[in-house]
Design goal:
2 copies of one chain form a homodimer.
Chain A (H helix, E strand, L loop, with lengths): L4 H8 L23 H15 L6 H7 L4 H4 L6 H14 L11 H18 L4 H6 L5 H16 L4 H30 L9 H9 L6 H5 L1 H4 L4 H14 L9
Chain B binds a DNA duplex (30 and 30 nucleotides) through helix 3.
Chain lengths: 246, 246
DNA sequence: TACGGGAGTAGAACGGTGTTCGTTTCTGCT
DNA sequence: AGCAGAAACGAACACCGTTCTACTCCCGTA
């Protein structure tokens, strides 16, 4: 029996490398045979150019010069494709060797790399949030983060939960940024865009919003990167450490 | 000129109460006239019973015993409906009078109420994440949170960003829980369900995952509520305070 | 009192989505 | 050479959000 996409998907959550899948079928006539790798690559190209919203099975099929049904020989469904995407995305994250004296910056570094990868492919966080946490590639990143936090002298239980919280926040942050960017891109309505608009809007609020009016400057201050690092450091600084590291 | 849905939507981001919209048209023959309020109410009923994924314009129209097009006289589009939903959801959140001596528990309390509201309507966080932050009802909750944090003696700039981080985390957390629940509900594949399954799976990991294997117990420990309070407290405890409050 | 305009309702349809069915086409092996 | 079987594909299904257009009924005005 041949490896159906279903079996391949199940295997992706287990151990063991997947065999290179010998080529068969009428692919010799094609310029480029349809493989899972080719599907994922062109999917990434579409997302990078037009955003995750533009990634449909039909659009993907057109890019591969075939019909939509041809994809389902390699991919179970779109949810499976999403999983493949975030899998490859996580696979490209390089993890440092944990250094107890530099665990904070190492942690921030990995989170930042993760964020950059997510932002490079706008909207893909949506797929990441829906993905199962048992994927081997995502698990690899979690393992790396866990190693760093543990090296920092954080109690295992706290470290385990903290890693989850951090990754969840990175996902949510990138999703919010992507959504905001896409809303900004299609400036359909007279929507809020610039910081001045935001400030003026806050200032025009009724007196039921005293603090929002008073601190409008602070509420609208900072770039998304500033807010990202603020929150990441907020969570890291809150970690109680039993160990010796700085 | 009459208030079209577009105007009503724009007004929702400004000040001033909306007029009760006198009834006209052939609605006298209907048992229940179609109003924005009725639409939102039945939408919530659908979400509560079948989840946000089941909320479609057609499904909503059927529940209201009408056609899909009839809804568009009261709602601009589905995005607008989403905004109305999270608006009402936030409107039902009661905010305490800030008490500097109890600001931590007040903060946790509001976040927990917010979480409970989100979880009551599974998947609605997806709409909340996409919603514009300038909605008056969501702004009201932010104002309340900001007041509490400021009362706790936190520097305005830190408080402003912290409120954003907290609300974003609540959204992300509830979305993750909802997704996990729905995946658990439709146990299609041999998917991970129980904690024992998770433990066994982690134990079966290759030696490339030493920490994940070693601390599988910690990684799978705790309920979602435990993890929620852990992260919320993590962020709150990280807040540097200049003031005098506890 | 008669009437016309307009708001509310609704059916049908358009373009799009993910997915499946049945068939065709080609390959590697016997 | 012939065949089993895998890959590719065109057409179709069910569903989505949304729009077009016609219709119905109320109300203010003449």
């Amino acid at each position: 029996m041949s490896p159906t996409p279903q079996e391949r998907r199940a295997a992706r959550h287990q151990a063991g490398p997947d065999k290179p899948a010998v080529r068969r079928g009428p692919s010799g006539g094609r310029k480029k045979p349809i493989t899972v790798d080719a599907i994922v690559s062109t999917a990434f190209a579409i997302i990078e150019a037009e955003g995750y919203e533009a990634l449909t099975m039909r659009r993907l099929a057109v890019a591969l010069e075939t019909g939509p049904s041809s994809l389902y020989a390699h991919v179970v469904n779109k949810e499976d494709l999403d999983e493949l995407l975030i899998g490859r995305l996580c696979a490209e994250i390089e993890l440092p060797e944990p250094d107890p004296s530099r665990w904070r910056e190492q942690l921030v570094g990995v989170c930042t790399r993760l964020r950059d990868q997510y932002l490079r492919y706008p909207g893909i966080s949506r797929a990441a949030l829906a993905a199962a946490p048992s994927n081997l590639d995502t698990l690899r990143v979690s393992e790396g983060l866990l190693a760093i936090v543990l090296a920092g002298g954080v109690e295992p239980q706290v470290a385990a939960w903290a890693v989850d919280s951090l990754t969840l926040y990175v996902n949510a942050h990138t999703l919010e940024v992507s959504v905001a960017n896409s809303r900004l891109r299609r400036a359909d309505d007279g929507w809020v865009v610039s910081r001045d608009d935001m400030l003026r809007r806050f200032a025009a609020l009724p007196e039921t919003f005293p603090h929002t009016r008073r601190y409008a400057a602070q509420l609208t201050a900072g770039t998304t990167a500033d807010r990202f690092h603020f929150t990441i450091n907020l969570m890291i600084d809150g970690l109680p450490r039993t160990g010796q590291a700085t």
